[in-house]
Amino acid sequence: MSATERDESTPRAVSAVPMRDLLAACAAAHAISTPPRLPDPGTIERAQHREAA
Question: Is the separation of the CB atoms in 26 and 18 below 8 Å?
Answer without folding.
Answer: no
